[in-house]
Task: inverse folding
């Protein structure tokens, strides 16, 4: 590092034209006379927004079916031993059908993920969603739904 120790001058001489051009950029004159050309070194870059836009994560079709089905259960109620009861509450498979609209790929994948999560939490013996749904409490069923939604989210499906 070079450090100047000569104390005879306190300031470095400034190019007055360069100084005037810089000042003109900071405080433009309202006079409509043409401005002198600004050196490239003094050109002002385009403003950069302070809030960066984060990449948006889209919800996958399986996650959407699971989320919509759980919202359906929250709105209309959950039941056991029937697809739809007289009050309009549904079992887990009924909620999946209502959310998916048809037995499409997202419906099948959501059902498989839900059953897999039910087996993780409640043992491997469950063959179908209705058999698992009918043998558990609402809190246990909800726990499986929420875990399946989290898995679908993390798997980005």
Result:
């Amino acid at each position: 590092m070079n450090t100047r120790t000569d104390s005879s001058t306190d300031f470095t001489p400034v190019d007055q034209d360069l100084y005037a051009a810089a000042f003109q950029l900071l405080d433009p004159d309202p006079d409509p006379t043409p401005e002198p050309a600004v050196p490239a070194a003094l050109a002002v870059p385009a403003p950069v927004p302070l809030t960066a836009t984060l990449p948006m994560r889209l919800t996958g079709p399986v996650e959407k079916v699971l989320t919509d089905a759980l919202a359906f259960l929250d709105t209309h109620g959950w039941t056991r031993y029937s697809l739809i009861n007289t009050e309009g509450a549904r079992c887990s498979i009924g909620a999946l059908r209502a959310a998916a609209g048809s037995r499409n790929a997202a419906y099948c994948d959501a059902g498989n993920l839900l059953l897999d999560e039910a087996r993780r939490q409640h043992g491997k013996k469950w063959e179908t969603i209705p058999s698992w749904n009918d043998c558990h409490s609402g809190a246990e069923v909800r726990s499986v739904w929420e875990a399946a939604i989290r898995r679908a989210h993390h798997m980005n499906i």
Observations:
- The two ends are 57 Å apart (CA to CA).
- The mean pLDDT is 83.
